[in-house]
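ok so I'm stuck.
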Amino acid sequence: MFEAKNIRFSRGGSEILSGVTFSVDAGEVLAITGANGAGKTTLLKILAGIWLPTSGTAISDGVDILEEPLRHRRRLGWLGETAPADDDLTVKGYLKYRARLKGEQSRKIRHRVREAISVCALEPFSDITVACLSRGQRKRVALAEAALLRPRLLLLDDLFAGLDAESRESVVTMIGSFRSFATVIVTGHETEWFSRLEARVLTLKEGRIA
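replied:
not stuck anymore, here's the structure
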């Protein structure tokens, strides 16, 4: 269970989020949509612990994200608007590198990487450098990295942006696999694809739940 409680966020004298409250069950997919500037990315960055809210908090499986931020981040998978990756590494090498940075035990890294590559259908690209991948393939690598340690919560910003129909189909399949271990919150504008995720949709309008 994940609960956001009366989250408010102000910047430069303007209130961007105005008392956002919702809950998501374990294994559920919640899609947050709304016009540009509605506060989607701001909300996700607060839930990820990247930004601090002006007031309010969130509880992830009993963990207050403000009171126990390190514990929260260890149970979190994050994908920002862009799909960062080290262009000079192979896909397999990049995922191993990220697993070490996330603090995974050395004896488990090989299994974690193999599982992520399989779930995200990256086997044909595992020994190819990231620089040689298409945008859709890079996003799949970023999704594999976000889910690498089987986090309890996955926050995926602008999930379908810039992907063609084939890549979006692959992402739908991946999210279906992630639901076996994670609560998933995604943002974006592609409401027709949110239905493919069997997602519950929450719409933000001017920082409030519409």
